[in-house]
Design brief:
single chain, alpha+beta, Pdz3 Domain, seven-stranded antiparallel beta sheet, 45% helix
Length: 536
Amino acid sequence: MDMTYVVMLILCIVYIPIWVWVWRCPEKAEKWHLVKYGPCIMIKTHLGIKTMNRVAKYTRFWRVCGFISKLVSAILFFIMVYVLIVGVLSLPGRIGSGIGIQYALAIPGFNPILPLSYGIVALFFAMVVHEMGHGIQSRSNGLDVESTGLLYGVIPLGAFCEPNEEQLNKAERRVQMDVFAAGITVNTFFAIIAFVLMALIISFVSVADFGQESARDLPGVYYVDESSPAFDSGIPTSAIVTGIMFDYETEYHSVTVDKGAGISLVSDIEISPLNTYYLRYDLKDGTQTTSIPIQMGAFIKRVVNGSPASEAQIDVASFLYSIKIERNGEVTEYMISNWNDFKRTMALTLPGDTATISTVDYCVNGSPEIYVHNPVTLTASGSIGYLGLAVTDSGFTFTTPSVMLEKCVDPFYGCTDPLSYIQGLLSYLSGPFNGLDPISNAIIWWYDAPLGENTWILVKTLYWIFWLDILLAISNALPARPFDGGFLFEGGVNWLLEVVGIKDTEKRDKLSQSISSCVSTVVLAMFFLMLLAFVI
């Protein structure tokens, strides 16, 4: 049995008797500040309430913050809805490819992407400031805070701040929405502060020279596909490729990168899948050379079923050699030596063009041959032609030290339109799933940092504070109870009903509650479906 499930089983066995005791002996449990809350236990304290009282004295300031909070929450609400819709639409392709239940548990050290030390600090900080936000807004609007503490259910589920429920229910709508929006906005605010400080520190980091003037644009190995020439070469991720030569040459030629739609390795010698090459590369412990020659070119790692490429019977694990495009009787041939060549060629095509593909087989030993496939008609991918191939550079995914550093501090790297900005932010937030926080430990040696290892400790601490704060803010904007976004959604519906002419307060409240309850049910169902497909 997976160790994750064993730990969860042990935690359940320990937790259930405690919960039963709190349920059966509430008076004794209260002496230990324990209160049953559905299937959870609230650990109630009064920590932080005096601080809330002192900070909440500036009522005008917090009134302005309340208005800003509602705007911030609305933006995050739309981001969360977008994530839900995209997640649900992608469910058919994700079923059976989950990464494990441990990824759904925000337990540092237990969740593979949450490091123990950084995770504990950042998670504690995120929960505390979130609940402090609720408490300060409550006090600035004259509402009492009954208690603060931790919500526990098998595992810690989060901190809480408990305003006086009766006073909150009787408060005007503006006050209620300010209180619910406060936690979301405080997390967002501290996420931005942490990110700015992290970016400031990274601005003092420079790329190591690797013995070359153009080190900033040397190809760094970011990922290696299995069953590819890259994998067979033995070059590990984190390597910096510094030279290339033919089998029969004794001197290396310098390399750099082609920054097109992606990053491809290029050199002053012609690179073709008909030839094999030795690569020289740097690792943290020195310079090495591939022990076997490898083919270099646009390596086909996937052919989409039912696509023109599938119809042309193009094989996976072969190389693209050329693409001939016929349009209106004119034929143009494009030679393909890397991933960027393929992307640039496809960008010149139109739906309905006739394409004749030439490929080269992957030969570990022996002489590769060119195969010319039957012509096919390109289908559409937006306004350009579609072939149906996924291609890499010999199985390598390259980056450069300078690009990696830029991406560390720019969540919107390469974004051009509003939708791409949302996708860019979500892609940046997925960094820890790819070992980035914001930069992999394996490639720290690519850089010279002013304080050495201490620089990266500061950077990673600030990154995890940013990451958990912004994730807590976005997830709490979910338009479903018990998330803050659910209460805000109900308040927003109530306001809209008033705007459209429903002045009867009781009728408006009942209608807004009914609408928000229905939306909550649908949203929670979508959320748990997406979560289930993600982890199982």
